[in-house]
Amino acid sequence: MKYHFKIHREKEGFWAECLELEGCVTQAETIEELCDNMQDALNLYIEEPEDSKFLAPFPDQSIKVSKTVVEVPVNPQIAFAASVRNNRLQKGLTQQQVAKMMGFDKIYSYQRLESKSCNPSLKTISKIKEVFPELSLDIALSC
What we know:
It is built from 6 helices and 4 strands, in the order βββαβααααα. By secondary structure, the protein is of the alpha+beta class. It folds into 2 domains: 2-73, Double Stranded RNA Binding Domain; 76-141, 434 Repressor (Amino-terminal Domain). A hairpin with a 2-residue loop joins β1 and β2 (13-18). 26% of the residues are buried.
C-alpha cells in the first residue's frame, strides 16, 4: 500500500503533503529527513485504535509519480491491520461478531489482527479470507 506525497521546497527546508489523506503533512530540513518523516506521518495517520470508526481511503492508483510527487509505502503490518479493519467496518460488523465468525473464543484474538503488532499465521489468514473474501493481501504486501 503506497500513498503519494507532493514535496514542496522552502527557503529553510522541505515540507510534504499526502495527496490522498487530508491533513497528513510533515516537514524537514533535508530531503533525507523528509523521506523518513513522510513514512512516520503516513504510518501514524493510518494506524488507529481498534475501536476507531475511521476509514482511511485507499491510495489513488491514478496519481502519477513525478519530480515532486513520490510514493511512500505504509508499514506492511499497519497496512494489513488497516485492510482488515476497513473490511470489517464496510460490512458493518463489530469486532465481537468477526471474532465469533472466525471461531475465536476471545475477542482479543481478533483485536490483535487490527493492531500493528499483528503477525498472523497462514491458518489465521485463511480464516480472515473466509470472512472477508474480498480482502486483498496484495495491499499489505505491496509496500
